[in-house]
Write a structure and sequence with these properties.
The chain has about 70 residues and is α+β, with helices and mostly antiparallel strands. It is built from 1 helix and 6 strands. The chain has one domain. A hairpin with a 5-residue loop joins strand 4 and strand 5. The protein is globular, with a radius of gyration of 13 Å. Bound molecules: zinc ion (ZN). Zinc ion (ZN) binds next to helix 1.
Length: about 70
């Protein structure tokens, strides 16, 4: 079994949401993108960050809270 290490908290975890399609129901990490002025993006960086499920939920909650402002 492959274990991954969370880049935020350092905890080891088993991979989750391994479907090879990207939507908010199956994300399992974070990468930075270049945002265009029309709120589309034109590419993602190659240095994605592994996140355990708890840290991913914390990042999503943070982004959603920032988006409300
Ligand atoms: Zn974590």
């Amino acid at each position: 079994m492959i274990a991954r290490k969370c880049d935020r908290c350092g905890k080891f975890y088993e991979p989750y949401e391994e479907k090879n399609e990207c939507n908010m129901n199956n994300v399992n990490g974070v990468a930075f993108v270049h945002m265009n002025t029309d709120n589309t993006y034109s590419g993602a960086t190659n240095d994605g960050h592994d996140l355990c499920h708890e840290c991913l939920m914390a990042v999503i909650a943070f982004v959603r809270e920032v988006s409300k402002k």
